[in-house]
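User: My collaborator sent over this chain with a note saying "see what the structure looks like." That's all I know about it. Can you take a look?
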Amino acid sequence: MAQTVMIIGGGPTQAFLIEKAVEMGLRTVVADPRPVSPACWKAEKVIHASPADPEGLLLAARDLDVDGLMTTTLDSGVPVIGWVNDRLGLRGVKEAAGTTAASKLNAKEAFLAHGVPTAKHTLVSSESDSAEVLADRLQAAMEAVGLRYPVIAKPARGASSQGVYKIDDRADALHWLPDTCRYAAEMGADLLIEEFMVGREVSAEVIVVGDDPVILQLTDKSITPPPACVEVGHLQPSTAWDDPNLVRQIRDVVSGAIRAIGLTDWPCHLEMMVTAEGPKVVEINPRISGDTIGSHLTHRSTNQSFLELALRAVLGDLDAAPLRAALNSFRQCVAVRFAHPVPGKHLKGVSVKNTRPIDDVMTYLPYGYKMNEFLSNYDRVAGYITVGPTREAVKSQLDEIFDGLVVETLEGN
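Assistant: Without extra context I'll predict from the sequence alone. Here is the result:
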């Protein structure tokens, strides 16, 4: 009899996971609160439930004899999945690990307690107040722990780079902290203030088998210039693989971070900054990587489906040793780059002159949408994936795509 997997969330990003589960021959149940969700047509069964109703999810999982639960980019679903797993004795993330990882502050404290290198930090209350008061709070909090400008301000709980800014001085604090405060308050969190780490950002795409983390791939990240910190592109395999000593350091940091959080039988996206002192953790996302990394890039670069491996992990059908052996074979280089919005204009569409190098396309904003300044992942217009034999080849192919790319607006360009 086919095993049953419950997928939390029926949004577009969950569709790839549902399709993979169906392809694997699994019985699929989607839990989503909406009457009709984008991914519901792909599943065998849909129930109207959400992470906001853990008791309902528990009853449904028990009634449907679910063998495992999974989600992709729905961060809020991870602690609830852990709560259900604990009560049903299922494999996968546990409530304590999910709750710790879902809070950037709790995760950082766990890293520090276990000796995992990470940025120095402090907290500022998100209680609504004037920009002047917020800037004063920031100054006092920084002085209390010995932090100096520049710093990174972000919501202690959040996603998609919303409200994340580099703060160089008090003038920046007055301008940007109210926005960070707004997003933090919406999430019921405070402002997390971190030292600004100088280096290059690399992420590790990880499957934890039992309590053993297996690095599927390392990804180089491209970020917008400050003050906003939005990811505008990803490249696999990371150039970090070319330095064996750095790879050993990264493996140690990944193992320490997974151990600190307590993740088991679960996917993970761990973001690091490679500094002069070595790799340091930026944050941990206890889920399949977003931004096409988990759904597209990792499969193309390693020939291993991140989605399938995540499902197999929670179902207890995965062995770390053969997986590591399979990952030793290089497949190809792959990269994605995201098109920028035209702030204040209404989107008509995107035209691309050079389509030859395009492997896949993602569109994010609907026709007629009034585009914002590029301050978070939600402001992206479209993404373009290309593959090739070398990193230089895929970078050149992305340049070719974007040289002929035009974001068309209803007002005219």
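A starting point for your reply to your collaborator: The first helix runs from residue 12 to 23.
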